[in-house]
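Please go through the sequence line and C-alpha cell line underneath and see whether the fold suits the sequence. See right below:
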Amino acid sequence: MERSEDLRAIEAVLMVAAEPVEPALLAQLLEITPARIDELCAELAASYEVEERGFVLARVAGGYRFQSAPDLAAYIERFVLGGQSARLSAAALETLAIVAYKQPVSRAQLAAIRGVNVDGVVRTLQQRGYVAEVARDPGPGQAVLYGTTGSFLEKLGLDSVDDLPPLGEFVPDASVVETLEQGLRPLE
C-alpha cells in the first residue's frame, strides 16, 4: 500500500467509525505498525491544521477520531442544542468531577463528599453516558462503584483520565484560605 493510500484509508475508516479507533486496530487494517499509524495520524492532523479545516483529527479515549475544530464550538453548540437546555447542572458537574478524580467511587462516598443525596444526579450522569458502573465494592453490601466512560473522555477531548489537570492547580494558597476564614469568624 502506498503512503497516500494509507492516509486515505485512515480517513475512510475514521469517517465511518462511531467511536474512536485504536491505533492497533488501524494498524491491523492497514497491515502496518501502530507507531506508523501514530505518525500518519500526526501528519493528517498537521495538514488539517494548516488548511484550517472545520474539523481536527484528535486522539481521544485511546483512539483517533474526527472532531469539530475547537474554535468553532459556538456554531456546533447552536446546531446541537437548537434551543434546548442540555447543559449539566452545577450539582451534576460537581459530582462528575468527583467521579473523574476519585474513581471507582460509590454513591455513598459521593454523598459523603458532597454532603447531599446524589442518587438523582448519578442517574442523570448515567443517562447521558458520562458515568457507568465499573465494579462492586468487596465490602459489606457490595456497593456499586462508578467510573467515567469513553464518552466522558471524548467530550473533554482527553485520551485518558491521566490527562485530567492535577487537583493541586485548583487549591488556593494559604493566604487566600486565611482571608476566607477571617470572614467567617465571629466578631470579637
Remarks:
- The two ends are 81 Å apart (CA to CA).
- The CA atoms of residues 45 and 51 lie 10 Å apart.
- The chain has a mean pLDDT of 88.
